[in-house]
Write a structure and sequence with these properties.
GO molecular function: hydrolase activity; metal ion binding; sulfur dioxygenase activity
CATH architecture of the largest domain: 4-Layer Sandwich
InterPro entries: Metallo-B-lactamas, Mito_Persulfide_Diox, POD-like_MBL-fold, Rhodanese-like_dom, Rhodanese-like_dom_sf, RibonucZ/Hydroxyglut_hydro
Strand content: 15-25%
Shape: globular
Mean pLDDT: 95
Pfam families: Lactamase_B (PF00753), Rhodanese (PF00581)
Number of domains: 3
Keywords: Hydrolase, Metal-binding
Radius of gyration: 24 Å
Helix content: 25-40%
Number of helices: 15
CATH superfamily of the largest domain: Ribonuclease Z/Hydroxyacylglutathione hydrolase-like
Low-confidence stretches: none
Oligomer: single chain
Organism: Fluviicola chungangensis
Length: 449
């Protein structure tokens, strides 16, 4: 048996191919299926099974596309309520894969329909367990994403209790030598304290993972529910798409309409002012010139997460990049969260009728009371340390809806922790508060404070 791990760093997502005697099973495949086809070709093997550990909230899976292209069976829990052709895969069910076997373990907690997959080699040895969003390295999955999404909805407290028993009754009873392969690593919003490691063992996790230590159910539930990260707007939307199965990757992104570059006022005049503008160009280009009311969401490792946190599901938007290569890459990245269908037009631009205000950092240091300071960091960051005591804390993911709370009697300075979110935040405020005379992005200068 050979196990191949695939990583999407931007979404901190791991997917897997299990190869045994010319047959491949895929687990939690990413939106673009091509890497799995390449793996199968490289090994002269056939993809015969695709397994979803649960309907994912943070990315769009290619399970249906792979089924349609290869005729591989899709296996999911019967509790998922899948709207595509599938085979139920729950406690007691096994899949023969070449000389190996895959066994289903129902492990609710992150979601009511979560399963883990135990890989058993040709000698009957339990070799690895694919834990989806149930057990991570150093943490376990959050239980608060399925209160209003999916075929089955459950209160977070009930799911947290189920997580307690899934970890203790199903996973830590496995041999210490069993390798743990999770669906996510550090940076994912599907948990709150994930390790940078991409795999571990049951034994190592029993020794070091907080959620596997001896404690009462009540203590566990309280600890698990505390300080979970925010839920991006797109999460329930993606659960719905994955429950139905998404359109094929290439077919869907090919439908995105491209416009000739916007380089002058006449070019820009054809745009609908009611449609949101997402400008992904580097900071210096945006500040020099950008379209009125554009939101500055730079091409960065967390582009997908912030796009799906700021833009509502099914809300149309224009997508701007600095060149065609970047534009095509960003369309593909938007498709990972199912947002490619919302792109009204995609185009390159170096034109703008707005510029960003320059800022005297030294004057600000000496006269902070002359400004309204808006902190767009997450609540947990603000709780740990307020950088400016008099700041108004509104997290970036709520900013579009809460701009009315910001006073406009002083210039507005926006900050985060390093500059990426404040760039987006200052542009959101500028586009939403028409009588704000000066909105300034503190940017990387916040590090000096």
């Amino acid at each position: 048996m050979e196990i191949k791990q695939f990583e999407d760093k931007n979404l901190a997502h791991y997917s897997y191919a299990i190869l045994s005697n010319g047959e491949i099973a895929l687990i939690d495949p990413a939106r673009n299926p091509q890497p799995y086809y390449d793996f199968a070709k490289q090994h002269d093997a056939k993809i015969t099974a695709v397994i979803e550990t649960h309907p994912h909230a943070d990315f769009i899976s290619s399970h249906l596309e792979i089924h349609e292209a290869t005729h591989a069976k899709i296996y999911v829990s019967k509790l998922l309520g899948a709207e595509y052709t599938h085979q139920s895969f729950d406690d007691g069910d096994t899949i023969k894969l070449g000389h190996s076997f895959l066994k289903a373990l129902n492990t609710p907690g992150h979601s009511p329909d979560s399963i883990s997959i135990l890989a058993i080699d040709e000698n009957g040895k339990e070799q690895a367990v694919f834990t989806g969003d149930t057990l991570f390295i150093g943490d376990c999955g959050r239980p608060d994403l399925r209160e209003q999404a999916g075929a089955i909805t459950s209160p977070r407290t009930e799911l947290a209790k189920q997580m307690y028993h899934s970890l203790r009754d199903k996973l830590i009873t496995l041999p210490d030598s069993v390798i743990v392969y999770p669906a996510h690593g550090a940076g994912s919003l599907c948990g709150k304290g994930l390790s940078e490691q991409n795999s571990s063992t049951i034994g190592a996790e029993k020794r070091s993972n907080w959620c596997l230590q001896p404690m009462s159910e009540e203590t566990f539930v309280e600890a698990l529910l505390a300080d979970q990260p925010f839920v991006p707007k797109y999460f329930p939307f993606d659960v719905g798409i994955n429950k139905k199965g998404a359109e094929s990757f290439q077919k869907s992104i090919s439908k995105v309409q491209h416009k000739e570059p916007v380089t002058c006022p006449d070019c820009a005049s054809t745009l609908n002012p009611a449609i949101l503008i997402i400008d992904t160009r580097p900071q210096e280009q945006f500040k020099k010139a950008h379209l009125k009311n554009a939101i500055h969401l730079m091409d960065d490792t967390k582009f997908e997460t912030w796009l799906g946190s700021i833009v509502n599901p099914e809300e149309p938007f224009y997508l701007i990049a600095e060149n065609e290569t970047a534009l095509n890459q960003l369309i593909e990245r938007a498709s990972k969260i199912g947002y490619e269908t919302q792109i009204a037009l995609a185009f390159v631009s170096d034109y703008g009728n707005e510029t960003s205000h320059t800022f005297d950092t030294e004057y600000f240091k000496n006269h902070p009371d002359e400004y309204t300071i808006v902190d767009v960091r997450n609540p947990s960051e603000v709780k740990t340390r307020r950088i400016f005591e008099q700041s108004l804390a509104i997290p970036l993911y709520e900013l579009r809806e809460r701009c009315h709370e910001i006073p406009t009697d002083k210039p507005i300075v926006v900050h985060c922790a390093a500059g990426y979110r404040s760039a987006a935040g200052s542009s959101i405020i500028q586009s939403n508060i028409q009588n704000a005379s000066h909105v300034i992005d503190l940017g990387e200068a916040v590090k000096t404070f």
